[in-house]
Amino acid sequence: MEAQPQLENTTEKRAIMNGKPVYQVPAKSVINWESGFRHKLLCDGPTFSTGSACAYSCSFCYVPDIMAKSPHMKGVNEKFEDIVIRRQGSLEALKQQLASKKGRALAEQKLVIYASPLVDVAANMDLVRETIEICKEILASTAWDIRLLSKSNLLPKIAQGLSAADSGCYTSDWTCKGDKARVIYGVSTGTLDDQLAKAFEEGTPLVSKRIQSLHWLQDNGYRTFGMVCPSLPQKDYNIFSQSMMAAIRADRCEHIWAEVINLRGESFTRTIKALVLAGYEWEADQLRLVSTHKNLWEQYARQTFFNHELAIKDSSTKLRFLQYVTKETRPYWERLSNCGAVLL
Question: Cα 84 to the chain's mean position, in Å?
């Protein structure tokens, strides 16, 4: 679970973003120095987040469940998924953290920092500009690489914004490689079907637009990674994996993370409801089945893993399949850890 900063209860509604009311909380910190995302291999410990409630509303999202009792929600009458929470003064808070004893000790280390564990970094142009400013500061003050994940098609705007800025490291100890060598971009999707994605990813751009933005980044020399998650049960896992890896150009991604949909709070219930409302009865039925039968969920995960492994060249080093294990299933997945399974 992502550790949350302790903020004063000064939540204040101010504006509308992506159709949601926006609440501001004072940012006492934006970096989590020891995030659990290290275990997912997405970073080397640090993550940053400039908000606590996302501009998007994905039914499978785990954040509403872990933030339900957050002090950020004090005085908020709406449901968590119906609001946006931004951390006011994020850039200054970041600068203070980087200038702290902890920040100075880590600044020269070759780490990867990940964003964002809580909110999308590019859900609109306001957030794009905010992310650019945060990344510029990290690039100028540390030797770290930055991994950015989004369900938006606006990551190229961040790339262009950083390319237009003096964002490299300029000390005698560090090699200035520029933002192209130090920022890694990835778009997230568990399906290539625009309409299916719209059923459970409320407010996000079309998957096809996200894929186009990923191709633009690849064609213009930027580092990229794949994020095939969360994926639903499939009628044909081989076709799904082959199509997905072709679409994201797996050969041009440094790594590819993948994950089936997992039970986090009410994530299954929300996603099944969203699928039914959108007319995806088969998908809803299959998700209902795997959510109530452990052996079927395990079979679904294994089929997804093996077909991804077959579809990715050099999968043993490139694939990072995130798998939550139990005492009973751990030995099985441990045998696959050299083939790309990441046990959680």
Answer: 17
